[in-house]
Amino acid sequence: RHYGTSKIISNPRRLSLPPGPTPELILGNTRQLPLHSPWEKFSEWRKKFGDILYLTTIGGPIVVLNSYESMYGLLQCKSSSANRPVFQMGGKMIGFDRMINIRQSDEKWKTGRKIIQSALSNEAIRSFYPSLEGATRTCLLHILEHPDDFKAHLELLTGKIIVLFTYGLKVESSQDELIAINNEAVGPSLAYFAPGAVLVDTFPILRHVPSWFPGAGFKRHAKILRQKVDTMFDVPFNRVKTNMAAGIAIPSFTLENLQDGIYDESDQLASAGSMYIAAVDTTVAALASFVLAMALYPDVQRKAQAEIDEVVKHGALPTFEDRDRLPYIGLLIKELQRWKPVLNLGVLHFATTDDDYDGYFIPKGTTVLPNVWAVTQDESNYKDPNRFWPERFENPETAELDPYKYAFGFGRRMCPGMNFADATIYITVASILAAFNISKPRDENGNEVELDVPYTQGLIACPENFKCIIRPRSEAAASLVRTTADEQGW
Ligand code: HEM
């Protein structure tokens, strides 16, 4: 029934492929795959076919995992699907295949991942706390001065944090060259890593079409993007080298690597260049969803603020030292990862060897998609899944499935930046709640306007720009934001 059968090499037990919708001749299920919210379609198919779906497309077979159990069983406990598919356009043509994030699991990936993992140890993150606090103080000031642009302020915050951590370079504004070169390279490229990319990104032969050929606009597009990607990798790295030679480099991930000299410079450059794209848009998406959740759920907001008021010293803003005494903020952050997962379909995995799972055969060459969205919306995991309700994790005896078990991926490809992201989200969420009230926008008659905010469709699910009211909680809160930004911000 499935075209993928021709690819079966070793299936001694003659297990069947997982079930799925009936494919068409030649195109398989390609035309049945919606480019809009495919996670919803996969969830619909789940009702008919079960947790594990098999689809054939012009790009090769796809297995969709619709439950946490299947993700844990196949992606966490086994290593057969720990690879990535080849991204022709985003990887080979544009040049992002130097990044470890989408790189196939080869030696370069292994080295790059090792470099990143050791740089993101808990100890390293702890020593970065003062910088995280300082950057957040300035972000609060920006929100106070221009509350309607809160999303741009959050983008600048996460961008400057990651540039400082990676290169020890300070970014003052969103016009800074270091932010601009990253955005110019990353923004237009993200689409090529989205789940739909497996469909459009399937003709390696197209790489050899000359760029003057009619209709080969994508080749010209790739050429322009490739230059931007090179700039993104090279400019900050070379600046650190210059600063190092001049003896003025600030401690950073890159400086440490250059000084240690353990790894090839190409590996150092690639791992540093993997950080921005992995860290910024993901963290911003979580923080923008936080602002939306607070506007929609004022009771949660008040409860979190009450906890902060009780724990944090009067006349001060929250710090990392307060974290253990702010359990409700911890629950709120957890619920944020569940309520609106940043990567609805995770990042694509790829099977490098034949394997079986739950009685089904998973052939080598299959792209594996964890449908994270389905897990977050499954009523057998979460009561009233649409509701933003941090209390669902409160009681250890009855707590619902912890989203940190799936929102950051699985196995050898699991996100090495989870604790860094978590620290950034904690300090931003706690600081914003300490200083501001967030509420729904109002119309000209002063009536609240309902918020129904669409989310971006690509790889990352971020709320589209939306209006809400962000006001300092009191005059004292406003002046606290101003003075701490003067004293501790950067
Ligand atoms: C809310 C924020 C974030 C979320 C939800 C997130 C989620 C993920 C997910 C789902 C993956 C793919 C895992 C898999 O394939 O199974 C991933 C990979 C990765 N993430 Fe994150 N991430 C976040 C922030 C960060 C940050 C802040 C950094 C760096 C400081 C980072 C660095 C990376 C890297 C380097 C990879 C590639 C790992 C590999 O392919 O071996 N991420 N992330």
TrEMBL record:
SUPFAM superfamilies found in the cross-reference section: Cytochrome P450
Keyword Methyltransferase in record: no
UniProt keyword terms in alphabetical order: Heme, Iron, Metal-binding, Monooxygenase, Oxidoreductase, Signal
Biochemical pathway: Secondary metabolite biosynthesis
Gene Ontology molecular functions: heme binding; iron ion binding; monooxygenase activity; oxidoreductase activity, acting on paired donors, with incorporation or reduction of molecular oxygen
Cofactor annotation: heme
UniProt xrefs under InterPro entries: Cyt_P450 (IPR001128), Cyt_P450_CS (IPR017972), Cyt_P450_E_grp-I (IPR002401), Cyt_P450_sf (IPR036396), Cytochrome_P450_fung (IPR050364)
Amino-acid positions noted as binding heme in the UniProt annotation, renumbered to this chain: C415
The keyword Endoplasmic reticulum is annotated on this UniProt entry: no
Sequence similarity: Belongs to the cytochrome P450 family.
PANTHER family, per the entry: P450, PUTATIVE (EUROFUNG)-RELATED, P450, PUTATIVE (EUROFUNG)-RELATED-RELATED
Name this polypeptide is given: Cytochrome P450
Native organism: Botryobasidium botryosum (strain FD-172 SS1)
